[in-house]
Amino acid sequence: MTLTNTHILQQTRFLFSAAKATQFAEDAGVEVAFAGRSNAGKSSAINRIARQTKLAKTSKTPGRTQLINFFQVADNNWRLVDLPGYGYAKVPLAMKQSWQNLIDTYLRERQCLQGIFLIMDIRHPLTEFDQTILKWTKQSHLKCHILLSKTDKLKYGPAKSTLLGVQRELSAFPDASAQLFSASTDIGWDEAREKLLTWLSTTA
Q1: What's the whole-model pTM score?
Q2: Is the model's pLDDT at 138 over the cut of 70?
């Protein structure tokens, strides 16, 4: 099966969820994580890139992803990882702190992590959380690819202008890149897919 085969990601399947570090998948192979604020569209992005509709659970209610969800890509030792959304989810403060600690442990300790897809609502890019993730990836010499999601909500001119603005901010982050993306259309799907496959094919 070649990396250019558009069907390889369609063979992605859910493995399990983890509520604590001892439940993580074995730290081997290659992982790419998806991070972003609550309701930024992480789960929808995973579904669109994998050309599936129900792989990652989606909801209009922010904070639906409360655990770290692991997905295996085909028969390879490749995994996609859906991290809990951070932000304004209507959950108790103690639970929010628990999610944050879980994300922090994952990001600090995973040796097989090749890069992070950082999902940002194009109408609200580079939030405090987004910039925290960017700084962390720079310190860790880890690749970061930004999907400016919900691009279909803007006309092309404003969307392109926002992308250029984000790219200017990324000049301080040599291992970061950005693109336009929409989970409800095909905007940016092929570019995101190729980036993901390139990372997954990189041996740790």
Answers
A1: 0.90
A2: yes
